[in-house]
Fold these 2 entries.
Entry 1:
Amino acid sequence: MNYTPDTVEYMKKRYIEEPTRETVDDLAEELDKSVKSIIGKLSREGVYKRTIYKTKTGETPVTKLEIVGNIVEKLGGVEADFLGLEKAPKQVLKKLEELL
């Protein structure tokens, strides 16, 4: 057994109080475990929250395919009719989506 019940409770308490990557790093160093091991255990215990990636502008990233799908939906078309549109620059696709 890698973790005692007391250790697991301690980890959960610390992480719930401050759910940051720094807390995970501190726990890994303190308990002499790898970061992956700590994250894995917290995940299995149902308390770990994955960090959501944000773009430089602070937005949630959206793929060009998702933007094209939104455009097709707004136009009432079929994606097969718009093949190649995903190759356009992302800013152009965003502007087109906004205009619709």
Entry 2:
Amino acid sequence: MNDLWAEDIVTEKVRTPVAILREQASFLGKKTQNVVLAEVVPISGVNFFLRFNIKAPALGDYSYTLFTIIHSIGLYPLEIELDDDVAKELGLEISTSTTVKDEDELIQLLGKVLKAERTKQIIRILLSQSSE
């Protein structure tokens, strides 16, 4: 029997939300000498759920969920559920998800979330507690 699959199905790489999140997670460990880390936790379900946690190994692996991303097999649009205080700081509705239409919009929103005062406060507190 002949191969009936398309020839170009493996030639085009797509940058997925999980790849973007894991890349950003790796940067936090470098900035904090691995005292405070970020991790991406996939949760199985009908859709893809990606929990982005800030983690302090010295505090018994304490973990704080900064946001959760939900997307279908199509990747975009996706929904992001932010920490209420971060959402409030960014002028977004609290306790609701925000729709992100594409990779560029995801990167822009992530930049705002990761630089938010609330995010910095969480990291500073975990750094302080981890060094006591």
